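debug: dumping io for the single-chain case to check the tokenizer round-trip. Nothing else runs in this session.
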Amino acid sequence: MTPQKPPLKILLAAPRGFCAGVVRAIDIVERALEVYGAPVYVRHEIVHNKYVVDGLKAKGAIFVKELDEIPQGDHPVIFSAHGVPKAVPGEAQRRKLFQLDATCPLVTKVHLEAQRHFDEGLEIILIGHAGHPEVIGTMGQLPQGAVVLIETAGDAERLAVRDPARLAYITQTTLSVDDTSDVIAVLRRRFPLIRGPVKEDICYATTNRQEAVKSIARDLDLLLVVGAPNSSNSKRLVEVGEKNGCPRGLLVQRASDLHWQELQDLKTVGLTAGASAPEVLVNEIIDAFRSHYDVTVEKVTLREENVSFKLPRELRESKPAA
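debug: decoded output
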């Protein structure tokens, strides 16, 4: 007689998974392969997800760290959704590479804000995580030294500026909403004349996914976030869950990352996905739990998302290669 599986409720948070910027970036690579044929070169991971990147490699995309890995010729080169420093498209133009920019429009918004502040002679404070591709791309929009990077409220307390009356701040789009609010509060207290964005820089998708996690966190034994270890928005979801009452959060790339000896005696598990994680991996994890538990899935939808971004004009107007 087969032993009865223990019951488990999975609270499936929504919104979760792909955001409009990620959908657009993946579509750009797939459409470029249709229009121009393989190979299409992509500088860095188009989005932070191995499953997605491997899928695009199988279709003919070649991922490179730097442009000098691309052979001579007018090959298409795509810049990732995180954005790139200005020097990168400059180098691509010098080498006569055909450029397609998959930078998320909400990241481009931050780039334009930075440029505007710089043109007005303001000292610019960027709230973000050192070394993240988006931060490197944003700081690289301006001359070295024009942007000062801070990460925490403590950094904001210690910050020394040239002129408190000539300041502006911008932020990475994938930060913790609450943590960033704390940093901004310190900046505003210390520098009352500091300028901020008209509409906040943290993107709608990051905000919505964090709010969805907050809404279920106190009801959980465990929060599982599907996402890559180098995905900022995915790591923030784990932190948000733990800060809002969930005793334990785990970031996993897919079902094979689950260690079942550590997942015993669970009653309620929350499941969400970072903005670059496909839904197929969420379903894979639910199926894996069904092998160990009698699973009931309850969808918890905080709000609906209907945002979309157009592809670059070159791809909208081109016909597929014969």
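debug: round-trip ok. Residues 7-18+204-301 form a domain with the Cobalt-precorrin-4 Transmethylase; domain 1 fold (CATH 3.40.1010.20).
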